[in-house]
Amino acid sequence: MSKGAFHYEQRRLENDLVALEPFDPTIHAARFVEEIKTSSNLLTYIAFPTINTKEEFIEFYDKHIGSPPEECLYAIYDKTNASEEENPDSNYAGTVALSATSLVNAATEVGIIIFPAFQRTHVATNAIGLLLLYTLDSPSLGGLGLRRVEWKTHTENAASRRAALRMGFEFEGVARWQRVFPGGQVALPVDALEKRNGTKGELPGRHTAMYSIVWDEWDEKRPKVVALMSRTGA
C-alpha cells in the first residue's frame, strides 16, 4: 500500500487541540467514505468521483493522492474529544490536504473537509493553522519555508471564502471558468458552449476564487494565526 511520495517530509503535526496524522487508507478510508455517503453536502462545492466503498476510495487514493509527489493528505483528529478513550475513531474529524505542490515554485495549495459533527468548532482553524506554520515557517523554525500557499474555492462557497479571509489569506481575484467541474453539485452549465463549438458532452465548469499567503507577509500574519488557533471556540 502506498503511503505517499510527497515532495517533502509528511510528518505528524499537532498542538493541544488537534493532531494531523498522515492519511493511511487502511485506517482512515472507511470512515471517510461513510461520511461522504451520508453527508452529501460535504461535496457540494468539490468535484469528486462517485465512490461507494472503501476499496474504491483506496484505488482512487493510490492513483491520485498516494503516488503523485505533488499531493499529500492528513487525517484530522480532535484531541479535546472526551470519548476518545472509549472509541478512538470518535475524534477523527476530517481531512486536510496539500496539493499541486511545486518544488520549483516553492508553492502549495491547502484543501480541507471537516465532518459535520466537528464543523463550527476549533478543528478547522487549528488544522489549517498547523499546515500554515509547517509550510510557511522558515527551516530554522521547523517549517518548509515555502514562498506561497494558495486557497482556491468555488466562487459560490461563501463559508470557504470566509474561512480563507479569517485565516489571513489575501483575495487575489476570480479565475473565470478555471476548471472543469464534473460531479460538482454547483456547476456552470455548458449548453451555450456546446452550441458555439458544435459539440456534445462538454463538461460543466466553475469560477474559482483565488486566495494566497506569501512568505514576505507571513511574519506579520503569523501571530494572528497563532492567536486564532488558541481560541478553542474558533
TrEMBL record:
One MF term in the entry's GO annotations = protein-N-terminal-alanine acetyltransferase activity
Domain of life of the organism in this record? Eukaryota
Which key words tag this protein in UniProt? Acyltransferase, Transferase
Whether Acyltransferase counts among this entry's keywords is: yes
Q: Does the keyword Acyltransferase apply?
A: yes
Per the database record, which ranges form the N-acetyltransferase domain?
Answer: 20-170
State the Pfam families in the record: Acetyltransf_3
Name the UniProt record assigns to this protein = Acyl-CoA N-acyltransferase
Species for this entry: Mytilinidion resinicola
